[in-house]
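Weekly modeling sync, notes
Attendees: S.R. (lead), two postdocs, one rotation student

Agenda item 3: backlog of single-chain predictions. S.R. asked that every request posted to the team notebook include the full sequence so nobody has to chase files. The rotation student volunteered to paste the first one in as an example of the format we agreed on. Action items at the bottom.

Example entry:
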Amino acid sequence: MAEGITRAHRRRVLVTGAAGFIGSHLADALIERGAQVRALDNFSSGARENLNSAAELCVADVRNIDTIRPAMVGVDCVFHLAAMPRVMLSIERPVETDLVNVIGTLNVLIAAREAGVGRFIYAGSSSVYGEQPTMPLVETMTPNPLNPYALQKLAAEQYVRMFHRLHGMPALTLRYFNVYGPRMATEGAYVTVIGVFLREKLANRPLTINGDGGQTRDFTHVRDVVRANLAAMDCAIADGRALNIGRGRAASVNRIAEIIGGPVVHAPARPGDPRHTLADLSAAREVLGWAPETDTEDGVREVMRLAGCA
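Predicted structure, as returned to the notebook:
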């Protein structure tokens, strides 16, 4: 990771989805390390206040390749984070989410190849694993997507791998596991469980647990995800492979509710969700020289303090 940080000042990079939760944190970190950052977003879900004022803004939609081609000029590395996330959104609006998550990724890959971009880092998802017979989840497992979003993320990462094989584009997919942290969404219909709990806590309402709460997730702080991206920018291997980026420890939804505190109510389990997730981080340690640093309970308490509900 250290090499990625020290060499960032020599880079001109493009971050798609740069006004979003993870993308804005990544843009901040790159700028802090001296990189020239071009931020691409259409603000369909990202917020302008998330953008670092030092970034060059390109307002464009990944569904329209002609709008993103100019953003690739002179770029050394692309971090592709633009997406329509959330499982339930993909179930309710599968065509719309596919156009962004699959066709949008293909458009960004094509534009990057045309511009001769030196490296492509794709924001993948642990959702591609679906239900698996054993834990932890390792990259050699056969994917088993349970919902349109997971299938879309799998198709997109296969395109990333294909562009490496067909065109020699140095590329990696980082499969994120349940990312949380400052700037995560707490409003709207498609918020992750920690965001839902924070919203309900701030409103003095009971915390809503879907199902029995025994389901476990590998909650990963956004700082660790950013560090993984910085490491991926300059690591020696960029052969199109996918790497797990998680905490490497799972916590139950019930435990997260206990940390946040307050009464709980139960709602029906959500369709399309796996029972458990847990990342095997061996490959990320080997390829990136990276390991997570933020403990889940400490991280959740931090976002509580920042949200004003500690």
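Discussion: group reviewed the output briefly. The domain at 2-183+219-247+281-292 is CATH 3.40.50.720 (Rossmann fold).
Action items: rotation student to repeat for the remaining queue; S.R. to check formatting next week.
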